């Protein structure tokens, strides 16, 4: 397995991310193969942050030895402009559909990508994929079915074949309309976390909106817990990329003084997120330069570097490979056995139990959780 310590390209990218996140230059990037850095940044979902860091370096008189050539800077700028354009386009479409649902008394709560972007120095530099949302009516009840029905009356394609969320296509935007925040049918911590999310949302009257939109966001603590859950699920099933680490670093940097950490850690233990939060905190501090103010926040996990190496080097991607559903199912199981350390050392899950839940879900219900 490749080692992060000996990977100059990956180390350079991490230094650039640290510069972009903190607006300061703790150490020079040094001479590196910039085409490889930019290619890695694109594959890891953080290409716009590289340009942001390069702008800071240039503004601080660091554009000298080892700086990218002009053509490379132009390519990096073009990639960043594309990310910004797609973000603006998708955000506008998300607000459009939220306003349409609002006409039917439905509020749109967003999470994951577009919600995380508000913690970035430049929100438009957070790459935007699908829109993940949870809909509620005026009493705070889940409006999943109303959202699907409204979409159908508008002539939109709606695929509600899975219990967790439907897929709705609105112009160029793919929407995941969630009935559940988690794989709630598994029971246990997954169900407890979903119930907690619904409880803290309540009737939605206290929720904040993204500026200039009808897009509501989760309460701070619930958002942090869901961010951990979602990233951990990806980590276990098909791997994650550096963008997940950056999302967490931005969240904790902005939110650390607003969270009661004793309570937050207690909830992490309840929802089986305590091992993973230690890893992400350590990555945020040691590799992305986040300064923590509260000494009770643990940031010294022995598995941080290995987790970064997994994001960089593991070939664990499953979906969107056009190889069919049986390839996906077998690859999920294969990943679990091949990378059992993730379950044992980070998630503190039973790997065998997790695989059995997956197989049982398919055999019993004809679908995976």
Q: What key phrases describe this protein's structure?
A:
369 residues; alpha/beta; 6-stranded mixed beta sheet
Helix and strand layout, with pairings?
Layout (H helix, E strand, L loop, with lengths): L7 H15 L11 H10 L3 H13 L10 H33 L4 E5 L1 H4 L14 E6 L7 H10 L3 E3 L5 E6 L2 E6 L9 H14 L13 E3 L2 H18 L4 H14 L5 H10 L3 H13 L17 H10 L11 H14 L1 H8 L3 H15 L4
Helix pairs in contact: 1-2, 1-3, 2-3, 3-4, 8-9, 9-11, 11-12, 13-14, 13-15
What series of H and E elements makes up the topology? HHHHEHEHEEEHEHHHHHHHH
Helical residues, percent: 40-55%
Tally of contiguous helical segments: 15
- DSSP summary, beta strand count: 6
- Main beta sheet strand tally, sense and closure: 6 strands, mixed
- The neighbouring-strand order within the major sheet is 3-4-5-2-1-6
Structural class: alpha/beta
Rg, Å, rounded? 21 Å
Stretches where pLDDT is under 50 for at least 5 consecutive residues are none
State the end-to-end CA separation.
30 Å
Strand content: 5-15%
Shape: globular
Whole-number mean pLDDT: 90
Query: In oligomeric terms, what are we looking at?
Result: single chain
